[in-house]
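#lab-general

N.A. 3:47 PM
ok so I finally got the sequence cleaned up, no stray characters, all 67 residues accounted for. can someone with queue access submit it? mine expired

B.Y. 3:52 PM
send it over

N.A. 3:53 PM
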Amino acid sequence: MKAKDLREMTDEELSKKLIDTKDELFKLRFQLATNQLDNPMKIKEVRRNIARLKTIIRERELGIHRA
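B.Y. 4:20 PM
back already:
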């Protein structure tokens, strides 16, 4: 997921996507704990996506517009 694509979403869509991504991270951590995770790099990717979502949400709260 690219930041450019995320910036085109509405606030409601971003909030929903953030909730879904956090749920995905929880499931991945559970798989890691039970030794069922095939690709451990997926956790890193999901954490970065959460950070991107939070950054864009915060930018909108502060009124920062990125080109």
